[in-house]
Amino acid sequence: MLNPNDRRYRYPFINCTDCGPRYTLIRKTPYDRPQTSMAMFKMCNECQAEYENPKGRRFHAQPNACHACGPRPELLDGKGKKIETDNPIAETARLLRKGKIIAIKGLGGYHLACDATDETVVSALRERKKRKEKPFAVMSKDIEAIRKYAEAGEQDEKLLKSREKPIVLLKKKNELLSKSVALGFNEYGVFLPYTPIHHLLFADDPILSALVMTSGNVSDEPIVFDESEALRRLGGIADNFLVNNRPIVWRCDDSVARTVGERIFITRRSRGFVPAPVFLRRKLPPMLACGGDLKSVFALAKGKTVFPGPHIGDLEHAEAFNSFRESVDHFKSIFEIKPEVAVVDKHPGYFSSNYGRSLGIPVTEVQHHHAHVASVMLENRLEEKVIGLALDGAGYGDDGTVWGGEIFVCDMKGFERRFFFPLLKLPGGDMAAKEPWRVATYILWQMFGERFKDAHPLFVEEIGESRVNNIVSILKADINSPVTSSAGRLFDAVASLLLISHKNSFEGQSPMLLESIADSTVEDSFEFDISGEGEIDFTKMLGKLVKSANDAGSIPNVSAMFHNTVASSLLECCKRLKRETGIKDVCLSGGTFQNLILLKYLSKLLESNGFRPHFSRQFPINDGGLAIGQIAVATSSF
Ligand code: ZN
Ligand code: FE
Q: Are residues 60 and 172 in the same domain?
């Protein structure tokens, strides 16, 4: 592509059998050109000859194309009017340098791009996209450029350069990039160019060192992948559109991963990975696992093969739920699987579960946290009983309450709930997950009764007396205050009690800020208790946290101690279970374990106490891994 003597010099859709799009182009199987969105481009003689030559690298490369016969880029203004230019990509690079926001059509959808070193345009993008605080992903030309602003070790480099080219989470090195890229966080999500267009953009302007490349959507809606939709939905956001005339048939978001030592953790498994299958030990009837409603991912299975679907997002959005249904149908058709069983989360109100229940085929229901643990068992080939630690924001519990801090003894068939996180109340229901100060108020009120305002005056001052009073009256009347054992809500509340963050403008924001501020070199922890019923009791710790927030104690210090205390309490539960059952295998799962301080410290504690900690590798540790766990549980009954 960069060889001026090649007939594909600067051709932005160059590909061969080892690279280029596949999943996002397929309408039907078998994977042949007429069944893809390349059908409308008739190959020129030269391309046709390459396509037919069994010795060439483009033999049966379905998207094979060139300047003469293939798709072309085009630059549009903000209203969708074509801009006349010989070189739309070079012109795009020029506009990016000038501080414009450009919607760029990629492989599985649109990105919104801008210069990541230009604070004015990055904050304008936040404003227009209505994404106030969630960090933006950043793309740089090569690993050297990345290392100017982020720390990338050997494993990170391997992952960044891998065929799948995921977004990799890396530690911030300095303030070279605009502060609005990831305000308050000590990490960046970074990736390398993965399409010819990306490479050309950087080639055309060597000064562009880092581009924000965030999904082309408004707040949490699914990523936009079609021209008219792009103009409609991104019209107010992008100054220009770099489009092309090759339709994207299926949307597919960027994947996200990180390394911890030698290990890779995938937090979003989508572009580059989907639809690669996973193989089971046991044969299954054709089945569909519907996953959960947040970070929705489904999976289709048949025989010993499982096909996990792409990341779809939050099914609460109508667009996402449509995408879920369409993608399930697409997978059914391309893999020729007619599900005979639907496996769903037990939740009575999940869109995904109700979809499965509506199919008119037998339904298997799986408890949310059991699915989390089972996904780890499946990947690690564990078939005997294990200790399962499932920590997350929320999942429907067997007793009808919201669970989320669960310590099980389980196998794939079933589980016993042996310990659980402190029971908290969620004043205002779902609102409490968005506003951690509500749960913090509950904790204060429960610990100190009517005197709580004297115990934590700074908290009351920050939140405002009337809002706090309002929560107390909700609690006193016991209206709309469901009970939860959620670990996520505990982390939220601690972030709020320590005056670090009182709201979640995206899922996990407060726990992430709490983790970011912690001094990970601290090894101390607080005391804790465990009740006769198995409830972990952090009252002593919470008292100390409140005290240090008011006495100007060291927040990085106490935040670290909080993480360590959570890990120590989990270790204590495991020790008690090991004494009783002899089990040494511990499976860690659920979104809370995306917290590295907790994950690393707990693994270390477990290992030094004779346990074998296990995690998922190929699948997300968060709800994106539920479908695989659901399949695992269903497998045990066939
Ligand atoms: Zn051609
Ligand atoms: Fe979960």
A: no
Domain that holds residue 283: 275-366
Task: Provide the pLDDT confidence category of residue 223 given band limits of 50, 70 and 90.
Answer: confident
Split into its structural domains, the chain has a count of 4
Together in a domain, 59 and 84: no
User: Residue 391 corresponds to which tokens in the numbers above?
Assistant: 């920590």
- Looking at the fold, whether 578 and 436 belong to one and the same domain comes out as yes
Residue 632 domain-assigned?
no
Cα–ligand 2 centroid distance for 390 (angstroms): 8
- Return the ligand number nearest the Cα of 13: 1
pLDDT higher than threshold 90 for residue 282: no
Tell me 73's DSSP state: E
Asked if 402 and 395 count as a contact pair (C-beta separation under 8 A), the reply is yes
Ligand 1 centroid, distance to 14 Cα (angstroms): 10
CA of 372 to the centre of ligand 2 (A): 7
- Positive/negative CA dihedral, 65, 67, 69, 71: positive
Structural domain contains residue 320? yes
pLDDT of residue 214: 95
Closest CA to 629 of 311, 284, 245, 366: 366
Please say if the pLDDT value at position 90 is more than 80: yes
How does residue 218 score in pLDDT terms, banded at 50, 70 and 90? confident
Statement to judge: residues 328 and 461 lie in one domain = no
- Pair (447, 344) in one structural domain: no
In this structure, the answer to whether residues 126 and 8 fall within a common structural domain is no
Report the separation in Å between the CA atom of 51 and the middle of ligand 1, taken as the mean of its atom positions. Answer: 10
| pLDDT digits 0-9 by tens, 166-194 | 999 999 999 999 999 998 899 999 999 99
CA distance 106 to 80: 17
Please choose, from the candidates 271, 225, 272, 230, the residue with its C-alpha nearest in 3D space to the C-alpha of residue 251.
Answer: 225
Contact 254, 187 (CB under 8 A): no
Residue 352, domain CATH: 3.30.420.360
- How far is the centre of ligand 1, averaged over its atoms, from the C-alpha of 68 (Å)? 5
Contact predicate 256/245, CB 8 Å: no
60 Cα–ligand 1 center, Å: 14
Q: Give the closest residue to 486 by CA, choosing from 597, 352, 368.
A: 368
Give per-residue pLDDT as tens, 448-466: 998 999 999 999 999 999 9
Residue 222: pLDDT above 90?
no
Tens of pLDDT, residues 467-491: 999 999 999 999 999 999 999 999 9
**How many Å is the maximal CA-CA distance in the chain?**
84
Torsion from C-alpha of 280, 284, 290, 296, nearest 10 degrees? 10
Asked whether residue 217 falls in the same domain as residue 289, the answer is no
Query: What CATH number does residue 581 fall under?
Result: 3.30.420.40
| Strand partners of residue 614 | 587
Indicate whether 270 belongs to any domain: no
- Residues 6 or more apart from 29 whose CB is under 8 A from it? 35, 333, 334, 335, 336
Percent of the chain with pLDDT over 70: 100
Among 244, 267, 297, where does a domain finish?
Answer: 244
Ligand sitting nearest the alpha carbon of 622: 2
CA of 49 to the centre of ligand 1 (A): 9
Q: 248-277: per-residue pLDDT in tens?
A: 999 999 999 999 988 899 999 999 999 999
Task: Determine, yes or no, domain membership for 208.
Answer: yes
